[in-house]
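User:
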Amino acid sequence: MAKSPVTIVLAISHAFATVLLGYVLLGFLPMALFASGFVGGLLIWLIVSDRATYQDVRIPYLISLGLFILHKLEEREMDFFPALSQITGVPVPEEGSPLAILLYVLAAAWLLVPLLMTLRISFGYYLAWTFFISMGVVELAHFVLPLFLPGSYGYFPGMASVFGLAPVAWWGLYRMVVPR
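Assistant: Predicted structure:
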């Protein structure tokens, strides 16, 4: 399926806005991580044809989505943002600020994957790529972030749930490339 210029501009704008908000709210390191998922997903989406169907990725998508929700709960309960702030020196963003809400809205676009892929709308494939790369690759940063803290290597908030989340997202990436 061909990607229309309008869809390409929309995907680039979505990726750029997410990365920019990551920088403004959280600093350079989180921005670089966001860029890995969103710009990486964008580049792969531009290169790879939209062959998979939603049925091909439905199970890994739904499991990844559920595990991502558990991951966000773990991050919240274990104070991920204060721990990240120790590394970046950037204060924890105000939870209900307009920019923080906008960042969540941009990420919530991942909820459109089932509808858009079912309708074979190319933007849904872009969202699926960014979702699976963010969950399967970027979330692995939880294992690197402790290296930036003083003391011995240990748990970093959100790390435990990545053990389940990342492999399921890898399955989703595989299904995006090798449909059933």
